[in-house]
Amino acid sequence: IRESLQVVRSRDPRIHRMPFLDAGHKLGGKKEGGGGSDYHALGAMEVICSSMAKTLQTALHPPDWLGFVNLSVSPEMEKFALNMTSGPGYSSKPFVVSARNATQALSAWRTALSYQQIKQVEEYCHQPMSLLGYERVGSPEEVKDLSRTLLRKPRL
Predict the structure, then answer these.
(1) Which of 89, 134, 137, 142 could be a cystine partner for 129, CB 3.0 to 4.6 Å?
(2) Which key words are in the record (predicted)?
(3) What are phi and psi of 132, to 5 degrees?
(4) Distance between CA atoms of 77 and 54, rounded to whole angstroms?
């Protein structure tokens, strides 16, 4: 809750808050005992996805003043990125940075989240997910069919 509250407090007050798809639904899958953690997690998700959408839009249409940076990727940075996406571990804890198996993590959410939870994330995060090439799921069966990819060519 503490971490989610920190994110929610950074929210732009001009942003319109999206309603829950199902106000009685709990992210943790429990109908009781979750308290405000789900509410704050959804608020944090809204802030994070809104920020990500703005960042991706800037990458697609960079302002002229951004051209001065001319950054290149160093071999050390490539090695770091490869290490962070090919590690043996997987963590479901939020805000934990560690080396993970990207292939395994890519589909883990499809078995860990309920269909209702996935629809909630899609509703809050549709803009950045669309830019990154994510196709919305159509049914619970489609989610669990790991042979079907939910990615198309991203717009970036």
Answers:
(1) 134
(2) Transferase
(3) -85, 0
(4) 24
Q: What distance in Å separates the CA atoms of residue 94 and residue 40, rounded to the nearest whole number? A: 13
List b or e across 134-147, with b for residues whose CB sees 16 or more CB atoms inside 10 angstroms.
Answer: beebeeeeebeeee
The most distant pair of C-alpha atoms in the chain lies apart, rounded to whole Å, by 53
Rounded CA separation 96/59 (Å): 25
Q: CB neighbours (10 Å) of residue 46?
A: 20
Q: Is the pTM of this model over 0.70?
A: no
Tokens of 67: 């051209």
Structure tokens at 132: 């990154």
Per-position b or e across 64-89, b if 16+ CB within 10 A of its CB:
eeeeeeeeeeeeeeeeeeeeeeeeee
Alpha carbon of 30 to those of 24, 37, 46: distances in Å? 10, 12, 21
